[in-house]
Amino acid sequence: MPKVVFLSADGTETGVDARTGDSVMVAATQNGITGVVAECGGNMSCATCHVWVREDFVPLVGPPEDELEEDLLDLAVTERRPGSRLSCQITVTEELDGLALEIPPDQP
């Protein structure tokens, strides 16, 4: 089972087991990760699951594939970075084992 590591704004690092095929957002919400609010439940109609993918994982995760995700990231409460993604749009795979993500500090 792949592990996903979330780094909160206060520096707390939490690793969770994630099921292959689930979104990173699902892994976060099922494990009580603070800061991944996911108000729309993964329907890509908000940006409350915005995360910053750590630099070494950006090539594996890839850029947003949908123009709607791009637009939502532009409207997110927190700054957009090169590794910004909506966690609902990142599918957990075996290749992403150890995926490290930062949770923006100002996320609702």
Query: From N to C, what is the helix and strand string?
Result: EEHEHHEE
- Helix fraction by DSSP (H/I, runs of at least 4): 10-25%
Alpha-carbon distance between the two ends:
29 Å
Unreliable runs, pLDDT <50, ≥5 residues? none
CATH superfamily: Beta-grasp domain
Name of the CATH architecture: Roll
Global structural class: alpha+beta
Distinct helical segment count: 3
Please tell me the overall pLDDT: 94
According to CATH, the fold-level topology is Ubiquitin-like (UB roll)
Structure, explained:
The chain is α+β, with helices and mostly antiparallel strands and 108 residues long. The chain has a five-stranded mixed β-sheet. The N and C termini lie far apart (29 Å).
Task: Spell out the key features of this protein.
single chain; five-stranded mixed sheet; 108 residues; alpha+beta; 19% strand; Ubiquitin-like (UB roll)
Strands, helices and their partners?
Blueprint: E1 3-7, E2 13-17, H1 24-30, E3 50-53, H2 58-61, H3 67-75, E4 84-86, E5 99-102
A few lines on this structure:
The protein has 108 residues and is α+β, with helices and mostly antiparallel strands. It has 3 helices and 5 strands.
